[in-house]
Amino acid sequence: MRVGLAYVVGAWVILQIVDFGLDAISAPNWIMQMFILLAAVGFPVVLIVTWVFELTPEGIRRESEIDRTQSSSASTGRRLDRVIIAFLAVAVLLLFGERFFVGPDDTAPVVTGDTDAIVTAASRNTIAVLPFVNMSSDVEQEYFSDGITEEILNRLAGIRELQVAARTSVFSFKGQNQDIRKIAEQLGVETVLEGSVRRAGDDIRITAQLIRASDGFHLWSEAYDRKLENIFAIQDDIASRIADALQLSMGISDQPKVMPRSVNPEVYDLYLRARALHRQRGEVLLEAVALFEQALAIDPEFAPAWAGLSHSYIVLPNYISKEKHQKLGDVLAKSVDAAERAMELDSALPTAIHAMANTLFFRLEWAEAERYYRQALELDPDSADIMEDYVSLLTFSGQLEASRKVADRMIELDPYVPVFQNAMVALLEAQGENELKAKAIQIALEINPDLPNLQMVRFDDMLRTGQFAAARDYVNQMSELRFEHADLIEQLDWVENHGESAKTPDPLYSPSVAFHADRYDIWLATVMESKEEWVEWFISPLLELYSTSAPAEKLHRFRSDSGTKAYLEDLRLPGYWRDVGWPDMCQPIGEADFSCG
């Protein structure tokens, strides 16, 4: 019994030391598993040997051959007692060290970034799926490894007891050789999944490992060699195994039973490439549209590609020239057709419902659009992508308090995405939160200083606040995707001169230029012209009317004009306001009229 106890305590101490050493050199898990197996096999062997043999001054002898009056078992027992006590002392020291020196601090908040805007703290049952590394010889296969990452992330996000860091937040760490523990602190998670993908033709190898963030300990690892016949089955298999590991380590039991989908590998490959280009924005959106259409030509029943096509069409006008926009024809109609097709094929697909909500919003069907946004969020409650567009609907319909709640949650989920910060900027402008708005612009541009939309937001904010010298310097840093620098300087000079120049710049980059110049006539004319160009540009001037940053007299003059009333009626907002409530700037008059001021 003493030998058995000494063996158990000693084996535990040795395994702890071995585990620490193997973890320090990032050794694979199977080595530690071999040590545990050897320790388990050795236990009964030691007990049998101890039962049959005895240690004597003359060496090891069979117990049956020993004269019991000459046995040294008493002195041997005392030596074993000392060994057991020594091992127990070491075990206590190890436990003490782990508890007080290397244990995680789950309560301390972590502040990241130069702006001090992102504060997160790791909570229970949280995981980040880092972008899987592309190990293929072809660097252009990057989209494939990214697609694998996203699909596994989506599977894990379906586990209700598990909080999964948002896609865009984790992808901000792509290519950065940072310590896992630091990444986990910034994302506020307690476990991290990382891996790699190697593809050669139709053969793929996927490796994945689950890591505890507090100490870098590997909880689970696996390698998969598969034929690229049904990639969804592979993803489901990996996600299921990860969920099993999480169940053991974190007590998670709620796992969805997802039936693997079957899809043509070529279709899936085209879909992943298109989705990667969609997220880049810019003129590559035209390539994304072409790739989505190629995928659908092969498999017209693949709903995610229809949803992706709808999403790409509806953002295109902001990133291409007017000539290319006109060549495409009715972009909104194409986006509507794609969204409707996606819904016909899979009415429970959150991206399809989200696409339908966007098209309803741009068709000025405010109530229906809101219903679809809510439905999409019920199915995917932590989708910051859906929240971004929902925030826009709430902001531009004047529901600022409701918009702020959704926007705060969006930024909490995914603070590293410039377009999300941009949605927050519009809301903060409407709420008159100028300091927070300037900070949000700064955060967004620190993440991506080259994004044309954000540059225009920064330039517009400088005009709004009268920073003309700074705006003139900033123009040289801006993209010329839609406006040349000379045109922007001309508009800047016009605003600085209070719109009194003999000639009005043409075209204005947005009606807000005329608003800053205090020229209501040109503001309204530009607003009405934008209706024929693109509906989003027809909606966005609402921001000038909601804003509380301008002088009260100017706001009253713009809001109360009969032209503004006709503009709001064209937007079909009064009927929506009668259902959800009127914004502060407008009030109903009876059941058929209203006034603003």
SSE layout and pairings?
Layout (H helix, E strand, L loop, with lengths): L1 H23 L4 H24 E4 L2 E4 L10 H28 L9 E3 L5 E3 L5 E4 L3 E2 L7 H16 L5 E2 L2 H5 L8 H8 L3 E10 L2 E10 L4 E11 L3 H20 L14 H16 L4 H14 L4 H13 L6 H7 L2 H15 L4 H13 L3 H14 L4 H13 L3 H14 L4 H14 L2 H14 L4 H13 L3 H8 L9 H12 L14 H6 L3 H14 L1 H5 L2 H5 L5 H9 L1 H9 L2 H8 L5 E4 L3 E4 L1
Parallel strand pairs: 5-7, 5-8, 6-8
Antiparallel strand pairs: 1-2, 3-4, 8-9, 9-10, 11-12
Q: Would you give an account of this structure?
A:
It is a single chain. With 597 residues, the protein is α/β, with parallel strands linked by helices. It is 60% helix and 10% strand. The protein has helices at residues 2-24, 29-52, 73-100, 142-157, 167-171, 180-187, 231-250, 265-280, 285-298, 303-315, 322-328, 331-345, 350-362, 366-379, 384-396, 400-413, 418-431, 434-447, 452-464, 468-475, 485-496, 511-516, 520-533, 535-539, 542-546, 552-560, 562-570, 573-580, and strands spanning 53-56, 59-62, 110-112, 118-120, 126-129, 133-134, 163-164, 191-200, 203-212, 217-227, 586-589, 593-596. Strands 5, 6, 7, 8, 9 and 10 form a 6-stranded mixed sheet that branches. A two-stranded antiparallel ribbon has the order 1-2. A two-stranded antiparallel ribbon has the order 3-4. A hairpin with a 3-residue loop joins strand 11 (586-589) and strand 12. Helix 10 (303-315) packs parallel to helix 13, helix 13 packs antiparallel against helix 14 (366-379) and helix 15 (384-396) runs parallel beside helix 17. It is elongated and about 120 Å long. The protein starts with a helix and ends with a strand.
